Amino acid sequence: MLNGINAMGRLFVLTLLLTLLAACGRKGGLVPPDSLVPAAVTNLRAEQKGEQFYVTWSAPSSDAGGKRLKDLAGFRLFRREVLPPEEDCETCPTAYQLVQDVDLEYPKGVQVYNNLYIFTDASLKNGTTYQYKLIAYNKEGAESAPSRARSKKVASPAAPRLTATSTPTGVTLEWQPAPGAGTDRAGFNVYRRRGSDIATLALLTPQPVKGNRYEDLHVDFGVTYTYMVREVVSAAGQLVEGAISNEATGGQALPE
């Protein structure tokens, strides 16, 4: 191969060959394939409200390698019943059932508010613990590591009866709990939205309210607010919200 090439030419060709051979074996700088998949969801939760579970999560913003995620395509949500320890087998092929495939281009079966995805699961049995598994996938079909959350379905409290009274300082709420509550009562959660705008729905009480009364002083004059209340009980080591009350409306009143 090197015949007919002068000494300087042979040196150049040998140097080029050695450089190419070294480059073929070089691994530094290559991107591991695993880093191209979406990062796992970090905030998957399953919370009981009434007789339903609300399964919630946020979309990851990066891939598994920490770079900005640009090609997220959807999520697959699975569910299984957790059996007694001697019978339970999470890794068995039939343990999980797909309950929702969320295509981001046509997101059916979920509600989305400010990057929070909400799946409502109503096909549940009292006394059964359910485990959810969520996988994010990109447009190439590459899947994230799974995220998991579990919760036990319990009998929930019935809905309270709510009334609202407008005052010059805000809105006073009072409610009558449903009969039959036991000693596991933790209090009541109060929700509010502006008129009929469901996007403004918010929990007003970070901790359940003790007693049957709450005064909302953080209101804007001229705005009509819609309120709802849920009873909260402690069951199976978790706080469970009961059925939602009737809606009651109110707003700041003019001083007399």
How would you briefly describe this protein structure?
The chain has one helix and 16 strands.
Give an account of the 3D structure.
The chain is built from one helix and 16 strands. By secondary structure, it is mostly beta strands. The chain has two domains: 33-152, Sandwich (Immunoglobulin-like); 161-250, Immunoglobulins (Immunoglobulin-like), CATH 2.60.40.10. The strands form four sheets. Strands 11, 12, 14, 15 and 16 form a five-stranded antiparallel beta sheet that branches. A hairpin with an 8-residue loop joins strand 7 and strand 8. Residues 16-32 have low confidence and may be disordered.
Topology record:
Elements: H1 7-24, E1 45-49, E2 52-58, E3 72-82, E4 97-103, E5 111-113, E6 116-121, E7 129-138, E8 147-152, E9 161-167, E10 170-176, E11 185-194, E12 202-203, E13 213-216, E14 225-235, E15 238-244, E16 248-250
Antiparallel strand pairs: 1-2, 2-6, 3-4, 3-7, 5-6, 7-8, 9-10, 10-13, 11-12, 11-14, 14-15, 14-16
